[in-house]
């Protein structure tokens, strides 16, 4: 399966050295392991998504970065805690659109919510782990 | 517990468990199947599953047994369990961006959601976990935090593998400082960089079970 440079679309063989060195055509450093080449529009979308998700810290010193990491960790823990307040483990927004409450699901119970109606899978509740 | 059970536990305490089932967990597109394939190829030959650029390619748990990892005199027999990506949101529109038609994308979304449930259920049958994270992405996601919290509650041994260190923008050091209480091994499942360190860590961490 070949690699495709997400910036210019050039294709390189599986295991090509350019994946590590960068694309010789445009200098791009982000490659996608892809079965079939993607059109420019899709590549741009993925590239934008990757760039948005890149970690990026504002702090310059080591201490500032560590502080930022701690703040982000606390924020993520609080967000995860909020999930516990929800009763459903899976919310069906529409056909093909699902929101998964990992906290609930990991406790073992499967409760599906769709448009305010709750569907409870009883065997999953009976097999829940006792804490 | 009978005398044989006690004897077996006593021997396991001294020599470590010889055969363990290791689950590879993590968010979609972290490279779980690529890693499972690499471990299978390195130690047993053959592949575990197909990989692709479209998220949620693995929607059912895939297993490969009879893998023996060695380091000098130390060895460990493992079954590798490659699990579907764990996500908090599955939306068929995302799959349509990769050229799938609406019907196929919706089917994939449904299977991916079922895959998350299956992956979590499998935690009951697992002796240890390699939690694979993408070192180019923000580690503080609900998926990473929730899985780790649950693994800690279950007292399952876990190694965090910071994958994709071959990519530009990879910051495995951030992952290390993000989860200081866990062993973090920076690897590239694709190129095989640092993979020996992961095998050594697996021998160390999982053999005691």
CATH superfamily of chain B: P-loop containing nucleotide triphosphate hydrolases
Name the largest protein-protein interface in this structure: A-B, 44 and 49 residues
Distance between the termini of chain A: 46 Å
The structural class of chain A is alpha+beta
Number of helices of chain B: 7
Largest sheet strand order of chain A: 5-4-6-7
Find the CATH topology of chain B.
Rossmann fold
Characterize the overall form of chain A.
extended
Whole-number mean pLDDT of chain A? 79
What distance separates the N and C termini of chain B?
A: 18 Å
Order of helices and strands of chain B: HEHEEEHHEHEHEH
Q: What Rg of chain A do the Cα atoms give?
A: 22 Å
CATH architecture of chain B: 3-Layer(aba) Sandwich
Which strand order spans the largest sheet of chain B, edge to edge or round the barrel? 2-3-1-5-6-7
Gyration radius of chain B, in Å: 18 Å
State the CATH class of chain B. Answer: Alpha Beta
Q: What is the percentage of strand-forming residues of chain B? A: 15-25%
Number of domains of chain B: 1
Helix residue percentage of chain A: 25-40%
Outline of the structure:
Chain A is an alpha+beta fold and 131 residues long.
Describe the structure in your own words.
The complex is a heterodimer of chains A (about 130) and B (about 210). Chain A has helices at about 20, 40-55, 60-85, 100-105, 120-125; strands at about 5, 10, 30-35, 90-95, 95-100, 110-115, 115-120. Chain A has about 130 residues and is an alpha+beta fold. Chain A has 3 domains: about 5-55, no CATH class; about 55-80; about 85-130, no CATH class. In chain A, the strands form 2 sheets. A 4-stranded mixed sheet of chain A has the order 5-4-6-7. A 3-stranded antiparallel sheet of chain A has the order 2-1-3, with no helix packed on it. In chain A, β1 and β2 (about 10) form a beta hairpin. The longest helix of chain A has 23 residues, at about 60-85. Chain A is extended, with a radius of gyration of 22 Å. Chain B is of the alpha/beta class and about 210 residues long. Chain B has one domain (about 20-205): P-loop containing nucleotide triphosphate hydrolases (Rossmann fold, 3-Layer(aba) Sandwich), CATH 3.40.50.300. Helix content of chain B is about 40%, strand content about 20%. Chain B contains 7 helices and 7 strands. Chain B has helices at about 5-15, 30-45, 90-95, 100-120, 140-155, 170-180, 195-205, and strands at about 20-25, 60-70, 75-80, 90, 130-135, 160-165, 185. Chain B has a 6-stranded mixed sheet with strand order 2-3-1-5-6-7, with helices on both faces. Chain B is globular, with a radius of gyration of 18 Å. At the A-B interface, β3, α2, α3, β5 and α4 of A face β4, α4, α5 and α6 of B. β5 (about 95-100) of chain A pairs antiparallel with β4 of chain B, so a sheet runs across the interface.
């Amino acid at each position: 399966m070949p690699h495709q440079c997400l910036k210019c679309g050039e294709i390189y063989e599986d295991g090509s050295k350019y994946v590590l060195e960068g694309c010789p055509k445009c200098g791009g450093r982000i490659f996608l392991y892809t079965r079939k080449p993607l059109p420019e529009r899709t590549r741009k979308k993925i590239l934008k998504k990757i760039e948005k998700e890149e970690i990026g810290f504002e702090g310059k010193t080591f201490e500032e970065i560590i502080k930022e990491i701690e703040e982000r960790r606390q924020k993520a823990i609080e967000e995860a805690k909020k999930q516990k307040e929800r009763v459903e483990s899976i919310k069906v927004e529409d056909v093909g659109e699902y929101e998964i409450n990992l906290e609930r699901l990991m406790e073992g119970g499967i409760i599906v919510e769709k448009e305010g109606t709750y569907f409870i899978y009883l065997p999953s509740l009976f097999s829940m782990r006792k804490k | 517990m009978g005398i044989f059970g006690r004897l077996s536990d006593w021997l396991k305490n001294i020599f470590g468990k010889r055969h363990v089932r290791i689950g590879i967990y993590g968010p979609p597109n972290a490279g779980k199947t690529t890693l499972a394939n690499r471990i299978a190829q390195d130690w047993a030959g053959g592949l575990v599953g197909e990989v692709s650029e479209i998220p949620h390619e693995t929607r059912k748990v895939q297993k490969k047994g009879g893998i023996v990892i060695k380091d000098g005199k130390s060895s460990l027999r493992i079954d590798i369990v490659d699990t579907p990506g764990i996500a908090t949101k599955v939306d068929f529109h995302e799959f349509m961006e990769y050229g799938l038609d609406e019907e196929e994308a919706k089917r994939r979304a449904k299977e991916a959601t079922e895959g998350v449930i299956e992956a979590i259920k499998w935690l009951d049958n697992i002796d240890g976990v390699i939690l694979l994270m993408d070192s180019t992405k923000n580690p503080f996601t609900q998926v990473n935090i929730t899985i780790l919290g649950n693994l800690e509650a279950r007292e399952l041994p876990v190694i965090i593998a910071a994958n994709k260190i071959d990519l530009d923008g990879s910051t495995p050091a951030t992952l290390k400082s993000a989860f200081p209480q866990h062993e973090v091994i920076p690897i590239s499942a694709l190129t095989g960089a640092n993979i020996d360190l992961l095998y050594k860590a697996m021998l160390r961490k999982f053999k005691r079970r």
